[in-house]
Amino acid sequence: MKAIIVEKFGGPEVLRLKEVPEPKARSGQVLVALKAIGVNPVDTYIRAGTYARKPELPWTPGTDAAGIVEAAGAGAPFKTGDRVYLYGALGGVYAEKAAAEAARVFPLPKALSFEQGAAIGVPYATAHRALFHRGGARQGETVLIHGASGGVGVAAVQLALSAGLSVIGTAGGEEGVAFLNSIGVARALDHRKPGCMDEVLELTGGEGPQLVIEMLANVNLAEDLRVAARGGRVVVVGSRGTATIDPRLTMTKDLAVLGMSLWNMTEAELKSTHADLAQGFSSGALKPLIGAKFPLAEAAKAHSAVLAPGARGKIVLLP
Ligand code: NAP
Fold it and tell me: What is the sign, positive or negative, of the torsion defined by CA atoms of 223, 226, 227, 231?
């Protein structure tokens, strides 16, 4: 089968399509013929060799994918022909096939395409964990989703709206604001515009949001602390550098700054999160949006695209 192989860390050009042996489903595992693969920013950090977690080389990137079960090992609760999505495989999912532990394989809800299935594992589970497990989001609260137009942001918008929160979202440019309006965010702001955070205060009558889900903390953390409501929580989901903040704001307003990493999820949390998400997909409250599609051979182009501003919807690879 064909798979993307990385033999040295570096730029997108190190992603090479090669012929490799097919994986096998051993006891408790599932072999899936992949139909769509999700591209996440973290795939690019690991490929570049700049991420905390460095895999052994040669390495095949990728965590999110969807496809059809080709074989199920003993004890794995799936059968040939089942439509499934994966969160993590034994050897990476930028490939035509992947083998995964059964606990990392989930039935693909009927309402979703394979491409939508490839947009669940990292973005939706991250948004869910940030909002509810770390952020303690409650019905009736106002949440600022700072970076609402990306993979995690769109998932956070849908989850927050369906849980009865009032959402303020940000995106880049007028086109980004229009995109947020189109997905149900009436109070959408342009994070490239100076004064954007003063508008957050105006929209909340000067009180500020009770919860902030932050996608670019190195740029925004200081301002998040300035506008957050008394007793508010700021959940750091993404950061690409360091930040200077005024810690006194956390004292005067009893603020909590909470880090969050999807990789810290326990197996029990993983199971309950995906069960919760399944309900949202079935009811139609959650609907992954697909953006650019690239053939697997063009994974390098997908890696450049996922870091460029203005992506609308999940970038997927098609094997
Ligand atoms: P993505 O699809 O590339 O989206 C990036 C988002 O950041 C877009 O909404 C973008 O908006 C927004 N953005 C750009 N400039 C911004 C600014 N100045 N202020 C606020 N937002 C800004 O990425 P993603 O998959 O949603 O992931 C978002 C971040 O979370 C990434 O850094 C990723 O590495 C991280 N992440 C962390 C975890 C974890 O476990 N902690 C898990 C998944 C992802 P425009 O393009 O409209 O400008």
Answer: positive
